[in-house]
């Protein structure tokens, strides 16, 4: 008599875990950042930076904003900013963003060192995903 009760309890536990998302394949977000990378790890002041942003979408999305903010100075200001509106289709799409590092470290209150650049994906006024990369700045 113990076997049917054990099987029923086991079934209930597994069914609950599966419904809660603990088992099986994880659901993919309909819109996400697959990856964010830069062309180099370190940059001189005044040099160009190329960022590759890969966006993954399960459907077509219009008016998706890629927002870049980074190189925050001692005053709390971001010295590298960018906004780009894109349209996605199902799959992974690559967007390349070219910017210039500010040329004057004393003017921008940036010192040589490690800085973060955060790329956010915004859809319908909501940040749906973000990724951060580190870069080195030098004189």
Walkthrough of the structure:
- There is one protein chain.
- The protein is of the alpha+beta class and 139 residues long.
- The protein has a single domain (28-138), classed as abc- transporter (atp binding component) like domain (Coagulation Factor XIII, Chain A, domain 1, Distorted Sandwich), CATH 2.70.50.
- 16% of the residues lie in helices and 56% in strands.
- The protein contains 2 helices and 8 strands; from the N terminus they run αββββββαββ.
- Strands 2-8-7-4-5 form a 5-stranded mixed β-sheet, with no helix packed on it.
- A hairpin with a 2-residue loop joins strand 7 (113-123) and strand 8 (126-138).
- The radius of gyration is 22 Å and the shape is elongated.
CATH structural architecture = Distorted Sandwich
The CATH class is Mainly Beta
Strand order of the largest sheet: 2-8-7-4-5
Topology pattern, helix = H, strand = E? HEEEEEEHEE
Shape: elongated
Rg is 22 Å
Q: Kindly report the CATH topology.
A: Coagulation Factor XIII, Chain A, domain 1
Beta-strand proportion: over 45%
Overall SS class: alpha+beta
- Within CATH, the superfamily carries the name abc- transporter (atp binding component) like domain
The low-confidence runs, each spanning 5 or more residues with pLDDT under 50, are 17-27
Give helix % range.
Answer: 10-25%
N- to C-terminal separation?
A: 79 Å
């Amino acid at each position: 008599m113990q076997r049917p009760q054990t099987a029923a309890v086991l079934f209930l536990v597994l069914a609950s875990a599966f419904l809660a998302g603990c088992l099986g394949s994880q659901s993919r977000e309909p819109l996400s950042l697959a990856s964010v990378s830069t062309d180099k790890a370190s940059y001189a002041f005044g040099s160009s930076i190329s960022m590759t942003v890969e966006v993954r979408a399960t459907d077509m999305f219009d008016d998706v904003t890629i927002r870049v903010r980074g190189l925050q100075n001692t005053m709390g200001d971001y010295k590298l900013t960018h906004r780009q509106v894109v349209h996605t289709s199902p799959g992974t799409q690559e967007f390349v963003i070219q910017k210039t590092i500010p040329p004057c470290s004393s003017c921008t209150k940036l010192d040589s060192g490690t800085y973060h650049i955060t790329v956010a994906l915004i859809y319908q006024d909501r940040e749906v995903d973000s990724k951060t990369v580190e870069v080195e700045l030098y004189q």
